[in-house]
Amino acid sequence: MQKIFFKKMSGAGNDFILVDMNQNPGFILTSEKIKNLCDRRNGIGADGLITIEDLADYSYKMVYYNADGSTGSLCGNGARCSIWFAEKTSRLKNGIAKFISNDTEYTGEVLYDELIKFNLNSPKQIKYNFKIKAFGQMITSNFSDTGSPHVVIKISDVLKDAVNPKSYFQSILDFPVFDLGKEIRYCNDFKPGGTNVNFVDVIDDEIHIRTYERGVEDETLACGTGSVAAALICYVTDNLKPPIRLKTYGGDYLTVDFEFENKKVKNLSLTGPAKIIFEIIGVKMSKVLFSIQYEIVPEKRDEYLKVIKELKNLLKAEGLESYTVYEVKGKAISFQELYTFTTMEAYEAFDDMNDERINILVDKISGMSVDKSTKYNTLVQLADE
After folding, report:
1. Residue 270 burial (C-beta neighbours within 10 Å; 0-12, 13-18, 19+)
2. What is the pLDDT of residue 303?
3. Per the residue annotation, which of 38, 75, 81, 234 is the catalytic one?
4. Which CATH architecture has domain 125-258?
5. pLDDT of residue 350
6. What pLDDT score does 19 carry?
7. DSSP conformation class of 299
8. Is 223 a catalytic residue?
9. Residue 318's pLDDT is what?
10. Are 14 and 221 in contact (CB under 8 A)?
11. Which secondary structure element, helix H or strand E, spans residue 211, and what is its range?
């Protein structure tokens, strides 16, 4: 297996694997390899992968790949992470970056530790107030191509019940982002490439945003170019004034600033946090930790504890070092299962194991969990060479 040196980074909740090609000479990326690395159950786990390489007359060249292995369009939070990465690898002068992505020149800067500003080009297209047929209704929509294509929809323009004209969504937290986002992402209006889909709610001059991202094919905790698109749209539809502040689904804030002159956008920028989560330097993989976190329906708590006790007694497998269940502090219905395997091979063998008794118990737990509350994570423990 080929060794890879990388950093895992987060840009306002968007997480990425960043690979410095200087540290990985001869490293060959394939679509399948990228997909496997970004897999949250069997790989490192990320919304995408970014390579950084030296380029004459520029700080660096950035190439972004989606989690499904395809080559991506512009990624705003990924670009901000790349700027911080370049600063930490001594590629920048005075914190100023000039780099290439998708054959286009961009700039950015480190304002101070982990606060990164990325300067975008003017949007290629902005379209307001058109209708999309989805969710059994005609939905008022907006569109902007900010380097990546984005539909922007206000949650108050979507009906919970298509035949009830008063059943508008009132909270973005219970909005069906995945189901509606997936339907619009693949609708005929945006073929062949599809689109990202952003749902917004403006509260006290602040945009609350959730995004379904193509290439990830799921909701992400944040989207940079989507936030820029939403800010540009709400500048017109809600009379917001730049700089515009956005709250991401992950809880972090992004700020979009720009000037609007003669119906043209200029001096467009995206600012927000970027940080290194962890990095791999000269080590090889050892133990594997696999976790499942979820919430249990409150009235099922006692039954759940009995099932977990039974599951503990059954979970015996070669290479399974331990199995532990934790209750999240202060949350009586939130639990995390943690499996520790001695090797990657043991983990993969366990994943393929088919024990009917265990499957029945796992199905019971699934039936007791709150819908869409389950999160998976795979961690690889590291051992010095």
Report:
1. buried
2. 93
3. 75
4. Roll (3.10)
5. 76
6. 94
7. G
8. yes
9. 61
10. yes
11. strand 206-213
CATH number attached to the domain at 6-121: 3.10.310.10
**What pLDDT does residue 385 have?**
44
Entry pTM: 0.73
Mean pLDDT in consecutive groups of 10 residues from the start of the chain, 385 residues: 80 95 85 89 91 96 96 97 95 95 97 96 95 95 97 96 90 95 93 95 97 96 98 97 97 96 93 91 63 90 91 76 86 87 75 78 90 80 52
Q: What is the largest CA-CA distance in the chain?
A: 70
Structure tokens at 282: 């000269």
pLDDT computed for residue 225 by the predictor = 98
Tokens at residue 150, please? Answer: 């984005």
Distance CA 55, CA 265 (A): 29
Identify the bridge partners of residue 25 per DSSP, sorted by sequence position: none
Residue 198 CA to residue 353 CA, distance in Å, equals 39
Amino acid at 371: D
SS3 317: coil
Nearest CA among 149, 151, 110, 109 for reference residue 129: 151
In the set 38, 81, 223, 234, the catalytic residue is: 223
Length of the chain: 385
CA 101 distance to own-chain centroid: 19
Residue 320: the pLDDT is 81
Q: In the annotation, is 234 catalytic?
A: no
Tokens of 136: 């059994």
Intra-chain end-to-end CA distance of the chain, in Å:
15
Residue entry with tokens 């909740």: 13
Dihedral angle over CA of 20, 26, 31, 37, nearest 10: -50
Q: Is 344 exposed, middle or buried (0-12, 13-18, 19+ CB in 10 A)?
A: middle
State residue 323's pLDDT score. Answer: 86
Q: Return the pLDDT at 311.
A: 86
Give the pLDDT confidence score for residue 2 in this predicted structure.
Answer: 56
CATH number, span 283-384:
3.30.70.100
45 closest CA partner among 274, 222, 216: 216
Report domain extents, the chain: 6-121, 125-258, 283-384
Is the fold of 125-258 the same as that of 283-384?
A: no
- Residue 265: name the closest of 93, 162, 144, 107 by CA: 144
